[in-house]
Amino acid sequence: MLKLDLEKSTLWLLALGFTLYVYRLDVAHVNLSVLRIVGVTLIVRCILVAAMRAFSGWALRWPALLLFVSTFFVFALNLLDYAQLAPMPALRTPISAHLFNIVLFISIFAYIDTERKFILSLETYVRASVIALFIGYYAYFLGDIPFSFLLHKFGSAFARNLNYLNVNDGVVRLTGPFYDPNFYGIYLLSVAVISAWLYRHCERSRLYLVLIAASVFSLLLTGSRTALMGLGVAYLCYIGLESKNKSLHMKVLYVSGLIAIVIFITGVSSGRFFDMDSVTDRLRFYETAWRAFSNHVFFGGGTVAVLEQESGISTAHMVYLSLLGKYGLFGTAIYMVFIFSPLAYAHKARGIMPARSFLTTFSQRSG
After folding, report:
1. Which of 11, 41, 259, 273 has an alpha carbon 20 to 30 Å from 310's alpha carbon atom?
2. 3-state SS track over 234-285
C-alpha cells in the first residue's frame, strides 16, 4: 500500500509541476520550481537504478539502447554548440534548459515502467489541468495570476520579468501558467487527447468529458494556430483509429467540416488565424533558418546561424527546420532517432503494456 501511495504522490507532484510552472522561486540564488524539484529527484533515481542494474549484469534491450545512444549524441551536439556561445551567454540558457528537459524526459519514461503507473500518470496529468485552467482564467479576467505577490517578492529574476498576459492587437490570449499562449495551447491539446483516451478505454467519467470541452474551448482562446492544427490532426487520427466502419468520403467530410468550424470560430473570435503580419514574421524566421541550412548542409551552423537579428531569437518557429539550420542533415538525423525511438519501444512493449504502446504511438504520429 505504501508503494502505491508513493507512486501516486510522485505522479501528482509531477503533474502539479506542469500546472504550477509559473511559480519559480529564487532559493539561495537557484531558480526552483515544483517541476524542477520533482525532476531532479526522478533523475537521481534513474541514475541510481541504472547504476545498480549495470553492476548486476543488466543488459539494455535494443529500443532502450537506441534511445540512450541517440541521447548521447544529442548531448554532444548541444555541448559543442554551447561551447561556441561564450561571447553570447544569453543564448546558452535555452540549451541548458533543453538538455535538462531531455534528461527529465528519459527519467520520467524510465520511472513509468508499469501499466498502473502509466494510467496513474495520465489521470493525474489531466486532473491537475483544472488548476492550470483556474490560473489561466484568473489572469484572463483579472489581469494577474493568483499569489503573484510571491513572485514579486521571492521569485527568480526570470519569473519576475515575464508577462503573465499576452495581448495581440488588443486581444487578450489565454496564457495559463506557461507565459506563452502557444505552449499553453499545446498543453490543452494534450489534456483533451488524453482525457478522450481515458474516457474511451478506462473510465466513463463525466469529468473527462468536461475536461475535453473545457480544454478545446480554452485552446481557441489561446489563439494558437499550432495547437489548432494539432487539434485537427488529433481528431483526424481519432476518426481513423476509432471509426473504421465509416466510408472514406464521409470521414473526409466529417473531419474537414470540423476543422473548418474550428478555424472559423478562431478567426472570428480573435482574428489571429488570418493575421498576415504574424505570418510574415514567421516567413522571416523560416528564411533565416533555411539560409543557415543551405550554407551548412551536413553539419549546420549552430545556434548563431539561426539567430534572427531583429528579434534576437534563435529559432525557425518550426522544430525540424530549426534542427536543419543548427545541426544540418547529420544532427537532424540523430534527433530523428531520439524523437522516434519511443515508437520502437512502444512496438516492443505492445503485448506487455498495451496502453503505453498505443498512446506513445498515437502521440508520436500526431506530433
Report:
1. 273
2. HHHHHHHHHCCCCCHHHHHHHHHHHHHHHHHHHHHHHCCCCCHHHHHHHHHH
CA atoms within 13 Å, Cβ hemisphere of 321: 17
Q: What 8-state DSSP symbol labels residue 155?
A: B
Phi, psi of 204 (to 5 degrees): -80, 65
Lowest mean pLDDT among 30-39, 138-147, 345-354: 345-354
d(CA 360, CA 105): 13
Gap between the Cα atoms of 114 and 121, Å rounded: 11
Task: Compute φ and ψ for 30, nearest 5 degrees.
Answer: -115, 130
Half-sphere exposure of 48 (CA within 13 A, CB side): 7
Residue 320 contacts residue 76 (beta carbons within 8 Å): no
Torsions phi, psi of 312, nearest 5? 75, 20
Confidence of residue 272 (pLDDT cuts 50, 70, 90): low
Count the helices and strands in the chain (H runs, E runs): 15, 6
The closest alpha carbon to 221, from 133, 159, 131, belongs to: 133
> Rounded CA gap, 193 and 239, in Å?
13
Query: Model confidence over 143-197: pLDDT tens digits?
Result: 888 888 877 777 776 667 666 677 766 677 888 888 788 889 999 999 998 998 8
Residue 275 above 80 pLDDT?
no
Cα angle 75-67-97, degrees, rounded to a multiple of 5: 35
* Beta carbons within 10 angstroms of residue 104's beta carbon: 20
Q: Tell the burial category of 318 from Cβ atoms under 10 Å away from its Cβ (0-12, 13-18, 19+).
A: middle
- DSSP annotation string for 68-117: HHHHHHHHHHHHHHHHTTTT-GGGHHHHHHHHHHHHHHHHHHHH--SHHH
